[in-house]
Specification:
Elements: H1 4-17, H2 33-42, H3 47-59, H4 65-91, H5 102-106, H6 139-146, H7 153-157, E1 163-166, E2 181-196, E3 201-209, E4 214-220, H8 224-228, E5 234-244, E6 247-251, E7 254-257, E8 268-271, H9 280-294, H10 304-310, H11 315-323, H12 328-358, H13 369-377, H14 385-398, E9 405-410, H15 416-428, E10 433-437, H16 441-456, E11 471-474, H17 480-492, E12 497-500, E13 514-520, H18 527-534, E14 541-546, H19 552-558, E15 563-567, E16 578-581, H20 587-599, E17 603-607, H21 622-633, E18 639-642, H22 648-659, E19 665-668, E20 681-687, H23 694-701, E21 712-716, H24 722-733, H25 737-748, H26 751-754, H27 772-788, H28 798-807
Parallel strand pairs: 4-6, 9-14, 9-15, 10-12, 10-13, 11-12, 13-14, 16-21, 17-19, 17-20, 18-19, 20-21
Antiparallel strand pairs: 1-8, 2-3, 2-5, 3-4, 5-6, 5-7
Helix pairs in contact: 1-4, 2-3, 9-11, 11-12, 12-27, 14-15, 15-16, 19-27
Length: about 800
């Protein structure tokens, strides 16, 4: 007599022979399930495999031919592999049913117990094995799971739910209330199928009872449920209590026979991100089998003393609870452990990078007091206290014999360029070379003009740091003949200071002795670009600058490998930008202010969140609004248009014309956010202001008022949403970028601050960079580990060392 598996294989092979036309069985392959499933269940077939077969065959009619072939291929392989176990069960004494207890719930199916791979002692076992080693995952499913980033067993372990549905609360039917999400255990009284829309769809309607009352439960377009539910079946049902015609009902709840291990009901249920052809139940079962087996076998790389000091659970149980929590308390503890690990690994990585960089020697540049005082005296204005502190830090770094690796963080207009200029002067005074790389040609040209004025024009004592011919500008559209001349001057050492864009890192550029590198607006550059400029010298001193205010807690995490200097003081005489949030209906007031300012000889920016308006977009867009503003609102003024889709030379031309006063108003997207210096601009009007983060709004606001005149920033949100307007109101309350950055971090998370930071940050799945207490705790422990074993060479840190290497993707990151 054929077993249940052999019977199903017979139909499936016939379906393959027929070319997947779904006619091997009259009505479709899924029609075998009503009689086959009870027989398979009674035979003791593995519950996970049974669930997958039922789910796949029910979905089979809707698959394409290619997907049908892949589906049957995977199922055939799995069922054929299960045949020996089935035969053994049929010839052996039938096992007694085992009660469902806590041990049973965590036990994986025998088919998931794959042979382990031999590793060095302490290393994780088999976690880099492909997902195809798992039952039910063939090549086709592996390709689908790849879209979710699931390639190995380790990927599965760290593929955390996006949310949890708490169905752990049980209630009797007579105590149910509208709107509750919970679980009931009941007996099926009746099951019926009702056709809808002329038979194009259907509704399964069941009435269930628990002795205290009954409730109607419905599922739409899931006809196989009618085949699986039978009168007198006892089931657990989890979902939301709804109401229809005055009676409580449950629509499309999850359900399971109560003799099964509860994965979808009667517990805190994980909800995973999905992709096409992957269902929640299928993935949940796969995750359960994988996590409960492999998490117990993973090596806990966190040293025991640190785990105890911070009061964290072991790694294996934490992984299990993060996927299938027994309680919300255990879930919180598990997430805290995994988040701590991520921040710790992040901190260890940056601390190691810092140690590696500081372990090499750099050229020493001693700067005489008298010479430096003379250079400072030549400046057109006195240095602020913050600038003096920053200058002292740079001077100390250059004379330390170790490479400078410093982040200079200062608000818009705080005078960072002066510090870069004086640092370059200290280095070039000794005959070495300096390079300053900016993200745009406009910003590079701006630096060139400012530094030329600061370092070459004679002052009271005619003690200029450099000659004009020793400073050059190199950008993408520099004429080829001039580029050749600059390349020769750099190689020979005649050019002491070069300012440019990405053109500086092109292969033909070589230096005579590059000893000082400045990266401006560092988050606009990838690590590879920074590294490409750094390797132009031996071990050059590095100064990276940013005008994006970063909260200190975040700076310690993002830039723990850099020494941090904060410039939190504005030059004397700079007036705060007057900021107002306007109702969308008050737009004419903004236009009138612009007209008034233009009549006084000033200029204005009008910023939009989009370039062009899409079919379903309600937001205003720069291209459409430029035309309207020019023809309807400001017909007598000249308006320029700037956006990211324009060619670089077009953008440069528009900005140059605006800077030179040809345009009174510049209509733009956020392409003007960084580095545009138009001292004559006094009005910044930002449409759709609710779409921007506070840090970005502050950057845009910093584009006006740079000439000393009173400037205005007008924010117009798309709607009157109270929360948005409350958030924007912070802009009107303060001009302090650090206050805004803290608020932005609380409200929007760390995305605005990350830029193109190196690896590591992509690995943050649990940690929140807004959790200051967690960051400080992890940093304290990371520093302790780094102090006693910086290379993690001690035997007890071997597992931690391997985990750290995987976390940081070795070979892909620059030291800074």
């Amino acid at each position: 007599m054929l077993s249940a598996i052999e019977k199903l294989l017979k139909f499936m092979r016939l379906e393959v022979d027929r070319g997947y036309d779904n006619r091997a069985v009259v009505g479709g392959l899924n029609k075998v399930l009503p009689w086959w499933e009870p027989e398979a269940r009674a035979s003791g077939m593995d519950a996970g495999l049974l669930e997958r077969v039922v789910e796949q065959l029910n979905a089979y009619p809707g698959y394409s031919l290619e997907d049908r072939a892949a589906c049957l291929n995977d199922l055939l392989n799995e069922l054929e592999a299960a045949l020996p176990a089935e035969t053994e069960r049929r010839t052996a004494t039938p096992p007694r049913p085992r009660p469902v207890d806590s041990d049973a719930q965590s036990a994986p199916s025998e088919r998931s117990r794959r042979p382990v791979v031999e590793r060095e002692p302490g290393a994780p076992i088999g976690l880099d094995a492909p997902v195809t080693v798992l039952p039910g995952v063939g090549p086709k499913y592996a390709q689908t799971m790849k879209q979710l980033g699931l390639n190995t067993l380790a990927d599965l372990l760290y593929y955390f739910p996006r949310r949890y549905d708490d169905y752990s609360q049980l209630k009797t039917i007579n105590r149910l209330e509208y709107g509750e999400e919970l679980t009931i255990i009941a007996t099926v009284q009746s099951v019926a199928t009702r056709p809808l829309r002329g038979g194009q769809s259907s509704m399964i309607e069941a009435v269930v009872s628990d002795g205290t009352g009954s409730i109607r439960v419905t599922w739409f377009n899931q006809p196989w449920i009618a085949n699986r539910l039978n009168r007198n079946d006892q089931i657990a049902i989890s979902g939301k209590v709804d109401m229809y015609l005055g009676r409580l009902v449950m629509n499309s709840p999850d359900w399971e026979p109560i003799e099964q291990n509860s994965l979808n009901t009667n517990r805190i249920v994980p909800v995973y991100p999905l992709t096409a052809h992957v269902t929640q139940k299928w993935l949940r079962r796969l995750m359960y089998d994988t996590v409960t087996y492999w998490a117990a076998r993973i090596t806990d790389y966190l040293p025991e003393d640190i785990r105890r000091a911070v009061d964290l659970p072991p790694l294996g149980p934490a992984l299990v609870q993060a996927h299938f929590p027994d309680s919300m308390e255990r879930l919180r503890a598990a997430r805290a452990r995994l988040a701590f690990d991520e921040i710790l690994l992040l901190q260890l990585g940056v601390l190691q990078q810092k140690s590696n960089w500081q372990s090499v020697a750099a050229r020493v540049f001693e700067t005489p007091d008298a010479w430096l005082d003379a250079q400072v005296q030549r400046l057109p204005y006195p240095l602020t206290g913050a600038q003096q502190r920053a200058l002292a830090h740079v001077r100390a770094d250059l004379s330390s014999g170790r490479p400078m690796n410093r982040l200079l963080q200062g608000d818009v207009g705080s005078g960072k360029t002066v510090i870069a200029a004086l640092g370059a002067a200290m280095v070039t005074r000794a005959g070495a070379q300096a390079a300053i790389m900016a993200p745009t040609s406009i910003l590079a040209e701006q630096h060139y003009r400012n530094l030329t004025r600061m370092l070459t024009e004679p002052g009271d004592n005619d003690n200029a740091a450099l000659k004009p011919e020793e400073i050059r500008l190199l950008v993408g559209d520099t004429p080829e003949a001039e580029k050749a001349e600059i390349r020769a001057g750099l190689e020979e050492g005649n050019i002491k200071l070069i300012i440019g864009t990405h053109a500086l890192i092109e292969a033909p550029i070589s230096f005579n002795q590059l000893e000082f590198v400045v990266i401006d607006e560092q988050h606009r550059f990838g690590v590879a670009q920074r590294a490409a400029l750094r390797v132009k010298g031996q071990t050059p001193h590095l100064l990276v600058m940013t005008a994006t205010p970063i909260p200190r807690s975040l700076a310690l995490t993002l830039y723990g490998d850099l020494d941090l200097t904060v410039m939190d003081e504005m030059p004397a005489g700079r007036q705060p930008v007057e900021t107002h949030v306007l109702h969308p209906l008050e737009r004419e007031r903004a236009y009138q202010l612009i007209r008034t300012q233009v009549q006084q000889g000033r200029q204005a920016f009008i910023i939009y969140p989009l370039i062009e308006k899409g079919d379903k977009e309600e937001s205003k867009a720069a291209v459409d609004e430029h035309e309207r503003l020019q023809s309807v609102i400001f017909p007598r003024l000249k308006l320029g248009l700037l956006h990211g889709r324009m060619r670089p030379d077009e953008k440069e031309q528009v900005m140059a014309r605006f800077r030179d006063g040809e345009f009174q108003i510049l209509v733009s997207t956020t392409v003007v956010e960084v580095g545009v210096d138009v001292p004559n601009a006094t009005v910044m009007l930002i449409e759709g202001a609710n779409r921007f983060g506070l840090a970005q709004l502050h950057q845009l606001r910093g584009r006006v008022g740079r000439g000393g005149d009173q400037a205005y920033c007008l924010l117009i949100p798309e709607n009157e949403n109270a929360i948005e307007n409350e958030r924007l109101a912070v802009m009107a309350e303060t001009n302090d970028g650090f206050v805004l950055a803290e608020r932005d971090l609380d409200q929007r998370g760390p995305g605005d601050f990350l830029g193109t930071r190196q690896a590591g940050f992509a690995q943050l799945r649990m940690a929140s960079l807004t959790d200051v207490r967690l960051i400080e705790k992890a940093r304290e422990q990371a520093m302790k580990i780094n102090d006693r074993d910086p290379d993690l060479s001690a035997p007890e840190n071997a597992a931690l060392r391997r985990t750290l290497q995987r976390f940081w993707n070795p070979g892909k990151g620059d030291i800074s």
